[in-house]
Amino acid sequence: MHRPVLTLVLLSTLTFFLGLGRQAITDSDEAFYAESAREMVEGGDWITPHFNYQDRWQKPVLYYWLTAAAYAVTGTTEAAARVWSALSGLGLVLLTWAAARRLTGRGDDAWLAGAITATCYGYFAMARLALPDLPLAFLVTSAIWAALGTRWLLAGAAAGLGFLMKGPVALVVPALVLLPIWWREGPRPPIRPRDLVAAVGVFAVIALPWYGAMTALHGVEYLQSFFLADNFQRFATDRFNEPRPFWFYLPVVLGGMLPWSVFLAVIPLRSAVAALRHRRPLASSEWRLLLWAAMPLLFFTISVGKQPRYILPVLPPVAILLARSIMRRVREVDPRTHAALVAATWGTAGLLGALAILVGRARPLLVTAHPSLTVAGVAGIGATAVVFAWIALSRQWARLPAAAPVCAAVVLLSVQFGALAGVRPEPVEQMAALVRMHRPAGEPVGVYQVFVRNLVFYTRFPQVDLFGEGPALDFLQSPRRVLLVVRAVDLPRLELLSAVSTKRLAEVRYLNTTNIRLRTLISPIPDQDVETVVLVANK
Question: What is the tens place of the pLDDT at every residue in 251-260?
Answer without folding.
Answer: 999 999 999 9
